[in-house]
Structures are given as C-alpha cells and as structure tokens.
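Input (structure):
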C-alpha cells in the first residue's frame, strides 16, 4: 500500500505559476467555456487548456445528467481500442467501485484517495486501464453549471515517475474548474442536429483499411462527427470504421 507520506514516492515536478500567469490561464479557461458552442465541441480544447496549468499527460471528461448523475458520454485524449474494450467489460462494476456520488460529495478527493487502497497496484483499473495508457496517477473534480448542477467530471492522468497529484495541484484544478461553469450554456448540438463542420485533416490508411496515422486535429474531427455517448468509441478505432458514414464509404471504395 502506498501512502501520501511514503518517502519512496517520486516527487511531483514543480509547476508553480506566478499569480499573473495563473490569472491569465484561468481567464483563458473562462473564455473558452463561454464560447457559443456545446460542451461536446468545446471539451477537447478545454481539457488541453487545463493541462497547460497542471502537469498531466492527458485528460478526460465524463458527462452526467440529472440529480442521479446518470453517465451519458465520455471523452478521453488518450485511448486505445484494447483499453476501451476492457473499460466496457468492467462497466457493470465500474460505477460501484468509483461511485460518482462520492466523487461529487468529496469534490474529487475520492479519486486520489482510491489510489491509496491496499492492493491498488494489482487493481484492474491500474493494470488494465491506466498502465497500458502509460500512466499511474489520476485526479479529478466535478464540474457544475451556472445553477450549481453537476454536469460532469474532469479527470487528469500522469506517468508514475511524475508522482501523485499534490494538494496544491488539486487546489489549482478546483480553481480551474470554477471557471468552467459556462460550458453547458449552449445545448448539445450533437444530440439534436448534425454538426456542420468545415475543416481538413490528414489520415493515413493501408490497403486493408487499417489507420496507420492521424493527427490531433483528425482525432478531434472524428470525435465531433461521431455520435458521442457512453459505450461508443468508434471515433477512436484504428481503421476506417472511425470515419463518419460518407467518407467511410469513399475510402472503402478506394480500397
């Protein structure tokens, strides 16, 4: 079992920011969250911007609805199809082991605390989810709208050698979270009408339809063009099934 006072733990990198730097960063987050787009469209940029102020390798966001915190969608900056299949295979116990209500009531503290339980080093969440994605430590906070209703949970993850997320970093993350209340002011366009996007991105396929390469912009576009809800991760596939229907048919024809 690892504890927060374990001297053998690697020390977290010093990410101290000046007051002026942090003010500018928080203002940027508030501006991003206030843009006239749905949270589904804004989250990729928002998560990346949050990582600008905290040492994290990647972030994720899970949407919830209603007072019972019903999970409805999940976005992650780093994912593989194999990890996703493991994640979905554990969905029947996932929310029992990581209750959203406890995450909310503890203002995210339960996420860090869970990593101190006995035998966590052999727990499936670490060995089958985090470790294959190159990470060890996690933290997060609930995000509320302007009426105080929880709309989702923002998570950050980082490699083992960077050390656990500190109390100071958790406080910084909460200050960042407080600037994101405007995220859900615009209805989610992906659930009510098709998105109209005009952008280009480069993807590379082999003759069998396997995706060999894609850039960050391509990942974001695939995500926005697919139906995003819990249990659906077609946009992250490493083949032509990641493409929306029209370009998928075009690529299949070329193959």
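Output (sequence):
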């Amino acid at each position: 079992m690892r504890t927060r006072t374990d001297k053998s733990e690697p020390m977290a990198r010093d990410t101290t920011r000046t007051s002026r730097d942090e003010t500018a960063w928080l203002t940027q987050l508030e501006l991003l969250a206030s843009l006239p787009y749905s949270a589904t469209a804004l989250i990729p940029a928002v998560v990346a911007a949050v990582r600008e102020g905290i040492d994290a390798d990647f972030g994720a966001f899970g949407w919830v609805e209603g007072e019972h915190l019903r999970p409805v969608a999940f976005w992650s900056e780093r994912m593989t199809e194999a990890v996703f299949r493991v994640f979905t295979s554990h969905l029947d116990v996932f929310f029992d082991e990581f209750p959203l209500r406890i995450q909310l009531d503890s203002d995210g503290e339960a996420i860090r605390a869970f990593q101190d339980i006995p035998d966590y080093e052999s727990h499936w969440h670490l060995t089958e989810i985090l470790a294959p994605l190159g990470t060890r430590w996690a933290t997060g906070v609930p995000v509320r709208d302007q009426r105080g209703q929880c709309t989702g949970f923002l998570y950050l993850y980082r490699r083992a050698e960077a050390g656990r997320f500190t109390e100071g970093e958790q406080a910084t993350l909460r200050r960042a979270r407080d600037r994101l209340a405007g995220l859900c002011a615009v209805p989610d366009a992906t659930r009510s009408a098709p998105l109209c996007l005009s952008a280009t991105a480069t993807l590379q396929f082999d003759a069998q339809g396997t995706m060999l390469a894609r850039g960050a912009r391509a990942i974001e576009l695939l995500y926005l063009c697919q139906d995003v809800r819990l249990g659906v991760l077609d946009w992250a596939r490493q083949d032509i099934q990641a493409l929306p229907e029209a370009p998928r048919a075009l690529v299949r024809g070329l193959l």
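Notes: The first helix runs from residue 19 to 34. Residues 1-16, 189-196 have pLDDT under 50 and may be disordered.
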